[in-house]
Amino acid sequence: FAMYFGELIEERGLFVLKEPAKLLNFPRAIPIEKNWSPFSSGNRLYVIYSDQPRVILEVDMHTGYCQEVTRTMSQWHWNLGEIRGGTPAYLVNDTFLTFFHSCFPANTSKGRAYVMGAYTFDKEPPFSIRTMTSRPLGDLTDYTQDNAPKVVFPGGLVVQDHWIHVAWGKADKRIFITTFHRDKLFSSMTPCFF
C-alpha cells in the first residue's frame, strides 16, 4: 500500500527495471497510498498527491523523497464524490490533461460507485486546474451493463495526433480502451474558477 517509481529499459525485447524501484517517501502520507498521478515538467518529476486540497509533490529522483511544492483549494462543480487519481498527466495543447476517478456512496456490493472524469491544469506551478468535465465520461452502459459493482477506473492514456486513447477498468474484471477526439473532449470541459 505504498507508491514506488523506477526507470524502465528495454532488454532483449522486454521492459525491465534498470535498478530496484524506489519508495516514494512523503512524510505526511497515509498508511494506504495508491492514487498518486505522476507528470513531468521542466525535467522534474511531480505527483498529484490529492485534489481537495490540491497537493502537488516534487519527487527527488535519487532518493524518492517527496516535497510538497504547492497546496491550493480548488473550486469546481463535481457532485459525484471525492476526486482521486487516475492516469498520469500528459501535456496536450500547452496544458496538462489527466483522467481521474471519483467515488460516492451507492447501493452496490462495494457500498459505493466509481466514475471517470477529466481535467486540465497549468503546465507551471502552482499547476492550477483550468477546465474539467461536468459529468462522468463514457456511455451509460459502461456504468450499468455487466458492471454490478459500478466501477469505472482510468489507468493510462496515449495521445496520438487528434486522438486521446484512455485505458480503463470496468467492474474490477475487464480492461477497455476508449478513444476521444482531442478537440471535442476539450470543448466539452467547463472552466474552473479560483
Structural overview:
There is one protein chain. The protein has 194 residues and is mainly beta. 6% of the residues lie in helices and 51% in strands. The chain is built from 2 helices and 17 strands. Strands 9, 10, 11, 12, 13 and 17 form a 6-stranded antiparallel sheet that branches. A 4-stranded antiparallel sheet has the order 5-6-7-8, with no helix packed on it. The radius of gyration is 17 Å and the shape is globular. The model has no long low-confidence stretch (mean pLDDT 92).
Question: What attributes does this structure have?
Answer:
194 residues; mainly beta; 2 helices; 17 strands
Provide mean pLDDT, rounded. Answer: 92
Oligomer, anyone? single chain
Distance between the termini: 33 Å
Helical stretch count?
Answer: 2
Going by helix content, strand content and strand pairing, the class is mainly beta
Query: Using DSSP, what is the number of strands?
Result: 17
Run of helices and strands: EEEEEEEEEEEEEHEEEHE
**Biggest sheet, open or closed, and with what strands and sense?**
6 strands, antiparallel
List the helices and strands and how they pair.
Layout: E1 4-5, E2 8-11, E3 14-17, E4 22-23, E5 37-41, E6 44-51, E7 54-59, E8 66-72, E9 82-86, E10 90-92, E11 95-105, E12 112-121, E13 129-132, H1 140-144, E14 152-160, E15 163-170, E16 174-181, H2 182-188, E17 190-191
Antiparallel strand pairs: 1-4, 2-3, 5-6, 6-7, 7-8, 9-11, 10-11, 11-12, 12-13, 13-17, 14-15, 15-16
Give a summary of the structure in a few sentences.
With 194 residues, this protein is mainly beta. Helices cover 6% and strands 51% of the residues. The longest helix has 7 residues, at 182-188.
